[in-house]
Amino acid sequence: MSASREKQNRQAAAGQADPKTAREAQQRKEEKRTNLLYGVIAAAVLIALAVSLVWRSDFLPKMTTAATIDGEKYTAAEVGYYYQTAYRNFLNQYSYFTSYLGLNTGASLKSQELSADSASMLGIEVPEPAEGEEASTGMTWHDYFLDEALENMSVIQAALKAAEAEGFAYPAGVQVQYEDNMAALKSAAAASGISVSQYLKGNFGAGVTEKVYGEQLMRVLRYSAYADAYQNSQVYSDSELEETYNADRNSYDHVSYETVSISGAAESTTDDEGNTVEPTEEESAAALEAAQEAAQAVLEGVEDGGDLEKLADEHEGTYSENENGSYSAGSVVSEWLYDSARKSGDAAVLEDGTVQYVVVFHDRFRDENPTIDIRHILVPLGTGSIAEGEEGYEDEQAQLKADAHARAEELLAQWQSGEATEDSFAALAMKESTDGSKYDGGLYTEVYQGQMVTEFNDWCFDAARRSGDTGVVDTQYGSHIMYFSGVNRNRWQAQAASNLRNEAYAAWEEELTAGSTIQRSESGLKFIG
Fold first, then answer.
1. Edge-to-edge strand order for the sheet containing 253-263?
2. CB-based contacts of 38, cutoff 8 Å, min separation 6
3. Sheet strands side by side (includes 470-475)
4. Which helix (H) or strand (E) holds 118?
């Protein structure tokens, strides 16, 4: 997968994975490349009240040095930009379990300690506590985000210096993205009925002016482009990919299987006064035993040739079927399914806490299906004026869809009347598309079957599809002008290459910043957070 595609994937909302699993913690620890760009412009604005105290003015944060990285000085305003960006991106990424991590977004970050458990889940090493003492990080959430900000700044500075020494030519998408972001900033401020200065001050703190914001935004964009170019330059042979696969087959293989889950938890009851009465130990033991007996009965039924789904109904279990399951470290079911001794037709009862699972294994395989590369230009649906459920809503929506489709056909015809090359399509995408891929000429690489919405996916994976094919596809998001670039490597190979590129980037980043020194200045840091 290309670096640009990885960047787009990081923008997308991922499923809500359990933050407690070791695999998730390891993934976060290994995710070396920090998302610095997205979520910078907040959807909602909380404006800090202007007061007359000198330390709240814009002058001192703009002038006072807060950090020096390898001799290059940064003001409190500049550090504040990265601090707030790190904080906002963290909330965007982990919003669904900030409370689980112990982060109170309504309180001062300086007053909240980062617990050892939370640090471990975030991939931060915690010193072993002395005998009889509890593990402690000795740091606050403010410290965590400040560390993130300064580390990000160090990486960006080193990368930009390397790009300059190399004579790296930044792609046109950098300037386009910069202009779009600055326009979005002004629109957000106008929508809030305040000036850009007020908007930035409310979101990033005193001293972050439009000039400061623009300068740091451009640095981030250039860093991202240079890092993308580095990752795109990493190419791996089939033998290298096969070696990567063999070193960790569980991460690439899929399994097909069926399960029936039966709860062995005793239910609580309610007394005459409406109070909840928890089950007794005897009731809990009886419920677990009943679930174990039911699971055993289901297993025996399967071994006698019975239908698992029907057996689930007979024994009050929940049936499920998965044709493309993935490995999950620590999962009782997953560990059984991925045992190298597993054969088609194997069945077993597995216990996970009070839940009993009857599992039937069918197959283990790696995804040999090819991925594809596609460019597209998104023409979004217009905004209607009639609320859903009101008279005329359906007619208005139909008209909005027709308008988007007509505009897409018009743009396609415009492209066809010109050079009609992939390069000219990319140029048109950068100018006209409203999708985030526009900055890469509308390109998505190594797209796999089922990744995109149905209509988009079906057009891409039509068996008759050939390089250079074009068309207009309508989805819930609007109309997409499609350009089929071609078939790429198999899905498992794409995953292996992506992992190797991530490892290469981590080593590259470490090499860039080896020996780098960050000096902090408390006189400037006091303005942050």
1. 318-325, 253-263, 355-366, 347-352
2. 10, 11, 89, 92
3. 443-447, 370-380, 478-490, 470-475
4. helix 116-121
SS3 assignment for 380-433: ECCCCCCCCCCCCHHHHHHHHHHHHHHHHHHHHHHHHCCCCCHHHHHHHHHHHC
Number of H helices, E strands in the chain: 20, 13
As a whole number of angstroms, the distance between CA 412 and CA 414 comes to: 5
CA distances for 28 relative to 35, 43, 119, 327, 381, angstroms: 12, 26, 11, 17, 36
∠ CA 377-382-388, rounded to 5°: 130
**Which residue, 156, 149, 159, is CA-closest to 520?**
149
How far is it, in rounded angstroms, from Cα 249 to Cα 8?
A: 26
Q: What is the pLDDT along the chain (529 residues), one digit of tens a residue?
A: 334 333 433 332 222 233 333 334 334 444 444 444 443 333 223 333 333 233 345 667 778 999 999 999 999 999 999 999 999 889 888 888 898 899 999 999 999 999 999 998 888 888 888 888 888 889 999 999 999 999 999 999 999 999 999 999 999 999 999 999 999 999 999 999 999 999 999 888 888 999 999 999 999 999 999 999 999 999 999 999 999 999 999 999 999 999 999 999 998 888 778 788 888 999 999 999 999 999 999 999 999 999 999 999 999 999 999 999 999 999 999 999 999 999 999 999 999 999 999 999 999 999 999 999 999 999 999 999 999 999 999 999 999 999 999 999 999 999 999 999 999 999 999 999 999 999 999 999 999 999 999 999 999 999 999 999 999 999 999 999 999 999 999 999 999 999 999 999 999 999 999 999 999 999 999 999 8
Taking the chain, what is the end-to-end CA distance rounded to the nearest angstrom? 37
DSSP letters along 21-32, please? SHHHHHHHHH--
The HSE-up count of residue 3 (CA atoms within 13 Å, CB side) is 22
Strand partners, 99: none
Contact 500, 234 (CB under 8 A): yes
Residue 282's φ and ψ, nearest 5 degrees, are -65, -40
Query: Does residue 363 contact residue 344 with C-beta atoms inside 8 Å?
Result: yes
**Do 432 and 496 contact (CB within 8 A), yes or no?**
no
Whole-angstrom distance, CA of residue 498 vs CA of residue 134: 39
Whose CA is closest to 176, among 205, 217, 211?
A: 217
pTM of the model: 0.83
* CB neighbours of residue 70 within 10 Å: 14
